[in-house]
Protein backbone atom coordinates (compact mmCIF):
# COMPACT_ATOMS: atom_id res chain seq x y z
CA UNK A 1 0.00 0.00 0.00
CA UNK A 2 1.45 3.43 -0.91
CA UNK A 3 2.41 5.80 1.89
CA UNK A 4 -0.28 8.44 1.36
CA UNK A 5 -3.32 6.09 1.61
CA UNK A 6 -1.74 4.46 4.69
CA UNK A 7 -1.40 7.84 6.39
CA UNK A 8 -4.95 8.80 5.42
CA UNK A 9 -6.31 5.48 6.69
CA UNK A 10 -4.41 5.88 9.97
CA UNK A 11 -5.71 9.44 10.34
CA UNK A 12 -9.31 8.41 9.69
CA UNK A 13 -9.18 5.42 12.05
CA UNK A 14 -7.54 7.43 14.83
CA UNK A 15 -10.10 10.21 14.38
CA UNK A 16 -12.97 7.73 14.59
CA UNK A 17 -11.44 6.17 17.70
CA UNK A 18 -10.99 9.59 19.30
CA UNK A 19 -14.53 10.69 18.53
CA UNK A 20 -15.92 7.41 19.84
CA UNK A 21 -13.95 7.64 23.08
CA UNK A 22 -14.59 11.37 23.55
CA UNK A 23 -18.38 11.04 23.58
CA UNK A 24 -19.86 12.67 26.64
CA UNK A 25 -23.28 13.22 28.06
CA UNK A 26 -23.44 16.49 26.08
CA UNK A 27 -23.96 14.41 22.94
CA UNK A 28 -26.78 12.41 24.47
CA UNK A 29 -30.46 13.14 24.08
CA UNK A 30 -31.32 16.23 26.09
CA UNK A 31 -35.10 16.13 25.85
CA UNK A 32 -37.21 13.29 27.24
CA UNK A 33 -39.09 11.06 24.84
CA UNK A 34 -42.75 12.01 24.47
CA UNK A 35 -45.17 9.85 26.43
CA UNK A 36 -46.77 8.71 23.15
CA UNK A 37 -43.58 6.79 22.30
CA UNK A 38 -43.20 5.17 25.69
CA UNK A 39 -46.80 4.10 26.29
CA UNK A 40 -47.59 2.50 22.94
CA UNK A 41 -44.36 0.56 22.52
CA UNK A 42 -44.27 1.37 18.80
CA UNK A 43 -42.80 4.29 16.89
CA UNK A 44 -45.14 7.22 16.27
CA UNK A 45 -44.70 10.57 14.55
CA UNK A 46 -43.86 12.14 17.91
CA UNK A 47 -40.84 9.80 18.14
CA UNK A 48 -39.76 10.97 14.68
CA UNK A 49 -40.07 14.55 15.91
CA UNK A 50 -37.65 13.87 18.75
CA UNK A 51 -35.15 12.14 16.47
CA UNK A 52 -35.13 15.06 14.02
CA UNK A 53 -34.77 17.55 16.88
CA UNK A 54 -31.73 15.66 18.17
CA UNK A 55 -30.21 15.54 14.68
CA UNK A 56 -30.67 19.29 14.19
CA UNK A 57 -28.88 19.96 17.47
CA UNK A 58 -25.98 17.81 16.30
CA UNK A 59 -25.58 18.68 12.60
CA UNK A 60 -24.67 22.37 12.82
CA UNK A 61 -21.84 21.96 15.38
CA UNK A 62 -20.48 18.96 13.43
CA UNK A 63 -20.49 20.98 10.20
CA UNK A 64 -18.49 23.71 11.93
CA UNK A 65 -15.98 21.22 13.34
CA UNK A 66 -15.61 19.52 9.94
CA UNK A 67 -14.96 22.86 8.23
CA UNK A 68 -12.38 23.72 10.90
CA UNK A 69 -10.58 20.39 10.38
CA UNK A 70 -10.53 20.98 6.61
CA UNK A 71 -9.08 24.45 7.28
CA UNK A 72 -6.28 22.90 9.36
CA UNK A 73 -5.57 20.30 6.64
CA UNK A 74 -5.46 23.03 3.97
CA UNK A 75 -3.08 25.08 6.10
CA UNK A 76 -0.81 22.08 6.58
CA UNK A 77 -0.80 21.43 2.82
CA UNK A 78 0.02 25.08 2.21
CA UNK A 79 2.94 24.93 4.64
CA UNK A 80 4.31 21.74 3.09
CA UNK A 81 3.85 22.81 -0.56
CA UNK A 82 7.51 23.95 -0.69
CA UNK A 83 6.70 26.68 -3.20
CA UNK A 84 5.24 24.32 -5.81
CA UNK A 85 2.60 26.44 -7.62
CA UNK A 86 0.20 23.53 -8.18
CA UNK A 87 0.31 22.40 -4.55
CA UNK A 88 0.02 26.00 -3.33
CA UNK A 89 -3.03 26.58 -5.54
CA UNK A 90 -4.61 23.33 -4.34
CA UNK A 91 -4.02 24.26 -0.70
CA UNK A 92 -5.43 27.76 -1.25
CA UNK A 93 -8.60 26.33 -2.78
CA UNK A 94 -9.01 23.97 0.20
CA UNK A 95 -8.56 26.86 2.63
CA UNK A 96 -11.03 28.98 0.67
CA UNK A 97 -13.60 26.18 0.71
CA UNK A 98 -13.15 25.70 4.47
CA UNK A 99 -13.60 29.41 5.16
CA UNK A 100 -16.75 29.42 3.01
CA UNK A 101 -17.99 26.37 4.97
CA UNK A 102 -17.39 28.05 8.32
CA UNK A 103 -19.06 31.25 7.11
CA UNK A 104 -22.04 29.28 5.78
CA UNK A 105 -22.44 27.39 9.07
CA UNK A 106 -22.31 30.57 11.12
CA UNK A 107 -24.57 32.33 8.60
CA UNK A 108 -27.24 29.61 8.78
CA UNK A 109 -27.20 29.70 12.57
CA UNK A 110 -27.38 33.51 12.56
CA UNK A 111 -30.28 33.58 10.06
CA UNK A 112 -32.22 31.00 12.11
CA UNK A 113 -31.71 33.04 15.27
CA UNK A 114 -32.65 36.29 13.48
CA UNK A 115 -35.87 34.75 12.13
CA UNK A 116 -36.67 33.47 15.61
CA UNK A 117 -36.16 36.95 17.07
CA UNK A 118 -38.11 38.80 14.37
CA UNK A 119 -40.99 36.42 13.68
CA UNK A 120 -40.95 34.04 16.65
CA UNK A 121 -40.58 31.12 14.22
CA UNK A 122 -38.07 28.63 15.61
CA UNK A 123 -36.71 26.71 12.61
CA UNK A 124 -34.49 24.58 14.83
CA UNK A 125 -37.54 23.22 16.65
CA UNK A 126 -39.11 20.45 14.60
CA UNK A 127 -42.74 19.69 15.47
CA UNK A 128 -45.25 17.35 13.92
CA UNK A 129 -48.78 18.82 13.99
CA UNK A 130 -51.29 16.83 16.02
UniProtKB/TrEMBL annotation:
A Pfam family recorded for this sequence: T4SS_pilin
Keyword annotations from UniProtKB, A to Z: Membrane, Signal, Transmembrane, Transmembrane helix
Entries under InterPro entries matching the protein: T4SS_pilin
First and last residue of the signal peptide: 1-28
Transmembrane segments: 58-79, 91-112
Protein name: Uncharacterized protein
